[in-house]
Write a structure and sequence with these properties.
By secondary structure, the protein is an alpha+beta fold. It has one domain. It contains 12 helices and 21 strands. The strands form 5 sheets. Strands 5, 7, 8, 10, 14, 15, 16 and 17 form an 8-stranded antiparallel sheet that branches. 47% of the residues are buried.
Length: 466
Amino acid sequence: MKTKLTFLSYIGILLLVVVYQGCVRNDKTGKFAATVTPQPLPSVVPGFNFPEDSSKIYKWLANKDTVSITKHAWGIWAGLTANSNQIFIADTLRIYETWLGISDIATLCANNDSLGGCNPTKSTREKLSFPHQLTHTFGTSIKPKILNNPGFYVSVAYNPSAACWATTKLLLNQSTITKSWDTSRIGKIKPFPKRSITTKPTYYIGRIRDKYIRIPAWQGPPTNWGQVYSEPQWNSYIYIDVNNKQTPGKIAVPVDSSQTNPPATAIVNLNEFIYYPIDSLAAAYINTQQQGQAGPVIKGDLAILVCMHVATKEISNWTWQTFFWTTNPAQPDFPSSIWQAKLQPTQLKGAAAHYAVSTAYAMVWPNQPITGGTNKNVTPIIGYNPYLEPGLTAPFGNVNKLNKSYQYGMQTNCMTCHAFATSNKTNGSLNYSADQYVDMNDNAIFNNWVQLDFAWSIQQNLNTSK
């Protein structure tokens, strides 16, 4: 009888594992489903409001109240990284992971499913794609147990409000853009509602079979910001122990590429990152993009979050905040700072607390109006993500009215750059821009273009045949 019970228990556990791998469990109700349901942004930090009243944010900007701006950004991060009530393949999804991905939204628009984004579900995580704005050389292994990553991948997702709006207006169809295009004026799509949020999580792919995973570690910009400064130029690396055998909370000391065996001081635990294991479909999709430049990614390999851009439509030009993993969360390097780290709320726990923040709620100080502002007698607001912008191909080419030498990724501001998100009848676009004030009614810049409400994700995922 004892043997029979043990066998039955084994069968029960096996069936439960199969259910978990094929379904989504609602941790609140205990019920299983075939799909993930997007969750709204929760308020985790006391006093945090979303959406915040725009007049309050404009008051922060008028007073150059960077403390309130930073606290708001941290409140957004706390909500994004909070656990949802859904478990996917035995892994509790964070709030941002439940949201509909841009490829799903594009498919709904292509099918003219105008309501598809309003009550959506999804059966997989968002696809990880090669980043549009970067060129990247895939790494090769230095030693069998030390990985120089096979890739740097991103996903873009819209919260429920933004997803609903995008499909209702079929914003990712070329026909929508064409209707807004006119050679005699500046075209504009219908602006997103104020509850909208877009995210761009960025991951390094690590092989689980390697004992350590090597990733670039940002240690601040060089003296000369006017250059392309991608990860090889950093020449600064840490290693992730996939077995979590390091001293918890250790501040890693990066090493350069000459190190073939990582010293203990350069190794941190995997659980100090937000990450998830890749399933077989995701692995296959990544492998199709690698063009034979690295070994195959397999089921169980790791998507390790290194950074995330986040925009909210709480004000007309959106709020912009970006987060990146840092070796020392109490003393992050520019474009973050120690004073911003000190404002991190105590509600952030575990891996989510290991990321730094940078904000760009305005293009320049003092903040300028949406139209009719100036680049004279203003101070630039530099806001970028170390893992995304420093390696941008440059110079950008757009004439910079604030400083003609501003042509590189380390001289950028999220709001300024996304102001140039445009398209036309052939899905062309304006170039990126480094930091400057941009008048959204500037005919010299925008005439004969359709402004995409600061959403590069529309231009880069447009259904050109629809």
